[in-house]
Description:
Layout: H1 2-8, E1 22-33, E2 38-53, E3 56-67, E4 74-85, E5 90-101, E6 104-116, E7 122-131, E8 138-148
Antiparallel strand pairs: 1-2, 1-8, 2-3, 3-4, 4-5, 5-6, 6-7, 7-8
Amino acid sequence: MFSALLLALPATPVLAGEATGGPRAELRGGVAWSEDHTDPVAGVAAGYDFDLGDHTFLGAEISGEKILAEDTFVELALTARLGTAVSKKGSVFANGGYTFTHHGDGPHVGLGYEHHLGHGGTYISAEYRHVFVDHHETNAITIGIGTFF
Length: 149
């Protein structure tokens, strides 16, 4: 039951005090590691957030990330997230979904923070994600910059 709840946590930020939902796009980069490798990673994401009221949001996202090492491929993920505002410009979120990799496919879970800049839709983000793929589990920490439209 707990894992089903984690997978149902929809993915996208509450636009604390700024925007309150809608479409968004993001560029991200960071580091990914598994049992025997640590490599840089870069990616893009697009999603849509729904304002649930009371400073809470629910969202959906599709993303593609590439581990910047030889013999790796782009990994695609479908993610849902649920979050809440923690300040006028900051939001925390939990996420879960499914990742498609060249090692196999599997669920992922994560946590993140978004901070909105100025009065527009631009934000910066930080996220941790763990991907559960048989015989090749991966962790990643990324930072990103994005905008709501």
